[in-house]
Amino acid sequence: TSNLHRQVLFDASDIGIRKTEAAMARVRELNPDVEVVPISTWLDEGNALELASDYELLIDASDNYATRLAVNDAAVRLGTPFVHGAAIRWEGMVATFDPRVGPCYRCLFPDLPERDEVCSDVGVFGAVTGVIGSLMAIEAIKHIIVAPDRTVDRLITYDARAARFTTLRIDRSDVCPVQ
Fold first, then answer.
1. Residue 43: closest CA among 26, 68, 22
2. Distances in Å between the alpha carbon of 60 and those of 4, 25, 33, 163?
3. What's the pLDDT tens digit per position in 103-139?
4. φ/ψ of residue 121, rounded to 5
5. Is-contact 148 97, C-beta < 8 A?
6. Which of 141, 137, 126 has the alpha carbon at shortest distance from 92?
7. Residue 4 DSSP one-character state
8. Pairing mode, if any, of strands 91-97 and 82-88?
9. d(CA 62, CA 118)
């Protein structure tokens, strides 16, 4: 209930239903030709490699660093690109990582932070998640169509209060723990 303001697949009638089941139903309503494979499990470092192994592109919108690092580590081991997006308070960020040609998430954030701020504790402006989700979708499509301008070495940040986007270059780290 507390995060419905930032959800596009769910509404109040979905409360009490597993997110995977509610999402599958909504996607099928929008387009019955889309194949939906719900995976109702928490992704972590113990199962990330297995869960990611069947996919050519991963999309990570997780709300905690442990999951983000697990996705990254699996992507690096598999050589699978992934689009990452995160939002908190009035800010968000998007990056596409392709371990075959550029830096990975750990080149930017090598370890778990001492304190992991999450939306349930500090909040997020719902419209920011919409902006970040849209940017993630664009980056995923650019990967699928093999666009030459994918952001495989850049981090796009968004500050909704200042109405400002910033793009930062990310370099491969010489001390990256996984690359």
1. 68
2. 19, 21, 24, 24
3. 999 998 887 777 767 666 777 888 999 999 999 999 9
4. -95, -40
5. no
6. 126
7. G
8. antiparallel
9. 10
Instruction: Give the tokens for residue 26.
Output: 């909504």
**CB-CB contact of 104 with 69 (8 Å):** no
The two three-digit tokens of residue 45, written as one number: 């470092």
Residue burial 95-115, b: 16+ Cβ < 10 Å; e: rest: bbbbbeebbbbbbbeeeeeee
Look-up: residue for tokens 């999450």?
118
Instruction: Over range 168-176, report the average pLDDT.
Output: 93
- Mean pLDDT over residues 82-109, rounded? 94
Query: Of 84, 71, 74, which is closest to residue 137 (Cα–Cα)?
Result: 84
CA distance 153 to 102: 6
Question: β-strand 154-159 against 82-88: which pairing, if any?
Answer: unpaired
Length of the chain, in residues: 179
Structure tokens at 11: 């509404």
